[in-house]
Specification:
Blueprint: H1 4-11, H2 27-42, H3 52-59, H4 63-70, H5 73-91, H6 100-117, H7 119-126, H8 135-155, H9 163-186, H10 191-210, H11 214-224
């Protein structure tokens, strides 16, 4: 048996509000830790309501270190969102391993894998307050949406959508974003059920669009053939 003094030392509670002990980390590791702490805080409150001191405390770092690495809160916010955006985009690169409908379902699974594993980053990226929708922050969010739009088109085999199909696909993407945020908040629906519902929504939207647009009708046929969800 181990000594009781060692056990006592291990079980000693840390006083509430005490800053976590600092660890020796590389520059990249420390930056990643600070960005992760920032994303967690920014996912719960607007950036304007989060202080550098809070980020530093959450990461077990000093205020001076945050300024040293990022220069200020806005720079930290931008870096953190860019990191979340890069991770999401990497996760959603098409696998090109099946039919268009299978590719769409696979992309949704990977999307919600990211939502579940990186909840703070996802929420901070898409749920910011009004101030985050302009300037560089708005540019990051718009860039992510535009790249994801192109990824979705690649997954379903579309190169140049006309106006009806473009609006249809962007409407579906907005539904997926909203579903991700709602699921993070409530988690009262099985992921597989949610993903299946969203695939069904894509088919339903294409059916509505097919009455007005031959391109949407062609895509609907390519996606479902004779077996619609």
């Amino acid at each position: 048996m181990g000594s009781t003094s060692g056990a006592a030392k291990q079980d000693t509670p840390v006083a509430e509000g005490t800053r976590p002990a600092r660890r020796r980390l590389s520059v990249d590791q420390r930056r990643e830790e600070l960005m992760a702490a920032a994303l967690e805080l920014f996912s719960k409150r607007d950036a304007e309501g989060v202080s550098i001191d809070e980020v530093a405390s959450a990461a077990g770092a000093s205020r001076a270190l945050v300024y040293h690495y990022f220069g200020g809160k806005q720079e930290l916010y931008v870096a953190a969102l860019k990191s979340a955006a890069a991770q999401l985009e990497a996760r959603l690169r098409p696998m090109e391993s099946g039919c268009p409908l299978d590719e769409l379902a696979s992309g949704l699974r990977r999307y919600f894998d990211f939502v579940e594993e990186h909840a703070a980053g996802f929420a901070a990226l898409l749920k910011g307050g009004p101030a985050s929708r302009s300037g560089e922050i708005g540019g990051i969010v718009d860039s992510v949406r535009n790249r994801l739009f192109r990824l979705v088109m690649r997954q379903i085999g579309v190169h140049e959508p006309g106006p009806v199909l473009r609006i249809t696909l962007r409407s579906w993407m907005a539904s997926v974003e909203t579903a991700g945020l709602d699921w993070l908040e409530h988690r009262d629906l099985e992921r597989t059920e949610l993903e299946g519902m969203l695939v069904g929504q894509m088919v339903a939207l294409l059916r509505a669009a097919a009455d007005r647009d031959p391109q949407a009708g062609q895509l609907l046929g390519d996606l479902v053939g004779g077996n619609a969800p």
